[in-house]
Specification:
Blueprint: H1 6-43, H2 52-59, H3 61-94, H4 97-109, H5 115-126, H6 131-138, H7 152-176, H8 182-188, H9 193-221, H10 225-230, H11 238-247, H12 252-273, H13 279-284
Helix pairs in contact: 1-12, 3-4, 3-7, 3-9, 5-7, 7-9, 8-9, 9-12, 11-12
Length: 285
């Protein structure tokens, strides 16, 4: 039996490598790249070739209001999520092993609950005769039910609840990587606890804050189920507006244009995120 030459073995390994790379790339191209390109083409060809659909960004008041509403709610959600998520991540880092395990279990368990169930749960909690209003009226804090749902407040509450794990976990990973000897060293040099936090700990955690903020903002721009249910049809964000254009008004070109704008915004945010996060290193961790 003749031995296989090293060069021939290497050539076979290279061919196998490229074959293994070709199959998933072809799969992604078929199921992702082709539909995205179709949307891009549709945005400049339907109902007729040209940039008329993109002119709606400057001329259509409904489109402008929808985009502004999406950006505003996304920004508010991102700010609240970062504030709460940072506090939770900080508590996780500085808690004991048992408490940390319980808190992490609660955070991870939230991934198992669908957005639809969460939205309906918040409806039950926040509606006029819900648990929150009933409790506030029973204690005498309010005389009439508060409007906590089917408005922008309800949408923000639902989105903040859904997005918290997506901020807590990256922030927790970032905070764990900070040398725990730096803050005591700053205290030993005369800094107060607040000064040690502001001048040492917080600056070192900024990359994690920025990365988590971009992730939350990306998800917030494409929210559909939560605003549709908790907004009660009064708060329209881009994803729901696109759905209406496709299924009701049949303005497919306008819907494709908005989808393209949303995709471009997400790509810009991802590009900006790559300046602060090493994705390959994060995956190795």
């Amino acid at each position: 039996m003749s031995a296989v030459a090293p060069s021939q073995s290497a050539s076979q390994g290279e061919r196998l490598y490229w074959l293994m790379m070709l199959l998933p790339c072809a799969f992604l191209a078929l199921l992702y790249v082709v539909p995205v390109l179709n949307v891009l083409v549709m945005s400049v060809t339907v109902p007729k070739p040209g940039l008329a659909n993109y002119a709606e960004l400057a001329n259509n008041g409904a489109v402008q209001r929808t985009l502004w509403t999406t950006l505003r709610i996304g920004a508010i959600t991102t700010g609240l999520v970062l504030l709460i998520g940072y506090a939770v991540a900080y508590a996780l880092v500085h808690s004991g092993p048992r408490e940390r395990q319980i808190l992490l279990g609660i955070v991870v368990a939230s991934f198992w609950i669908s957005a639809l169930i969460r939205a309906f749960a918040w409806i039950a909690l926040l509606q006029s005769r819900g648990i929150v209003n009933s409790a506030l009226m029973a204690t005498g804090l309010i005389d009439s039910p508060l409007s906590l749902v089917r408005n922008e407040l309800g949408v923000v509450i639902g989105m903040v609840h859904y997005m918290l794990p997506y901020a807590i976990l990256p922030l927790y990973t970032n905070l764990r990587g900070i040398d725990d000897r730096l803050v005591p060293a700053a205290r030993a040099l005369g800094a107060t606890p607040s000064q040690a936090f502001r001048w040492v700990f917080l600056p070192l955690s900024l990359p994690g804050l920025i990365g988590a903020g971009v992730i939350v903002m990306i998800f917030s721009l494409g929210f559909y189920i939560t605003p549709a249910i908790l907004g009660g049809g009064r708060i329209i964000m881009v994803a729901e507006f696109i759905s209406v254009q496709i299924s009701e008004t049949l303005r497919w070109g306008l819907a494709a244009m908005l989808a393209t704008v949303l995709l471009g915004a997400v790509l810009m945010l991802v590009t900006w995120l790559s300046r602060f996060m090493d994705v390959e290193q994060a995956l190795r961790k």
